Amino acid sequence: MLRFQCIQIFLCLFTYQNLFYSIAKYHKVNDDVLSLRSYELPVGKDLLKYLKTIEFMTIYSSENVNKIDINYAFGIFLVNVNFKSILREKGDLPYIIKTKLKKIIRINDKNFKEFQKSTKYNTTYKTEEFQKVLKLLTNTSHWVDRLNNLVITNLKSYNFDELKDIYPSWKYYLQDVKNKEKWTPNPKLSDSCLVALFSSDVVKKGSQSWCSLRDSCYEMLTEGDNFGYALTHRLLLLLVADLGRGCSIFSPKQDRALKYKYCSMAYAEVEYIAMNKYEIADLMMESMCLCSMEGHAQFLRRNWLRHLLYFQKPIGCFGTKLNSPEVVNSFDGRKFGFNTKYQNALQEECNIHTTAVASGVFSVAIRYIIQEYY
Prior knowledge:
The chain is mostly helical. It has one domain. Helix content is 59%, strand content 3%. The strands form 2 sheets. It has a two-stranded antiparallel ribbon. It has a two-stranded antiparallel ribbon with strand order 3-4. A hairpin with a 2-residue loop joins β3 and β4. α3 (47-63) packs antiparallel against α18 and α4 (70-89) runs antiparallel to α5.
């Protein structure tokens, strides 16, 4: 996700690059409803549950506007992009669904404006570079215009034995994930390339548009590391160029090929995290969010989403530690409001970045359900 404190990490560059050297051509395998169900993707009855998940996050942000940072602001922005896309495409939704979507958009807009005001008094956020980034997050209509439909694509799925051959033991994997400066792009490079993208002039030739970046940003995309947050931030740069600025960095064809390559690798990594008890939930949801925004429906597996709900706290935020099943089940009786008895006890368990990426994932899942069932 978009962050001014980007984390970059991971492991065994040679192994990963060789494994994913060949890139299959992106194509839709089958977009009929029966085929999508075969991948255990969200179904109609999941809609209200996922909407409740987003509602609680929205209330949390309303009660904690001072905790919103650029990561969470981007999560809020993606919720509104997905929900405005739904309202544009599906004008005949049931009244209760349409009302809930509009209410969440309205609250998010209010919270985002409060965050914008606060940036004027924050030494980190009031810089010219940051304000350029923030300006891009006010243009939901541009993103809505360019969103891809969600379809099953031909990304390879791996079994556990295959994943053990690809990745090191979980212990060493975690150690490498925490090594924030070792991989390419590092935090400074990732941030600077995003700022450069927002500042770049868009050059148009016929029906195509390009954004011009400096050499280190091109090298980040072609020669960067193929795992962890380094991988997701390479994908983020291409997605923001496409959806946020309407431009290509290399060419439309080459950018699509790179995004497909990145999501192919991210899919294996998400499977590996899921098979290891979802211990790095924020990285998993970051990959799920970005690749589903690119149109890869299989990143929205119901089983994954079901387990990730165990990271949501009773006050609405998401954390990095699992809840007990009893806590998760207690959510079912809550209404769209704020239960203050949990606030002090669980505030320290909230993680803003995890909450941000969860906002993105579950809002895309809602868009998928409405795309297929309404």
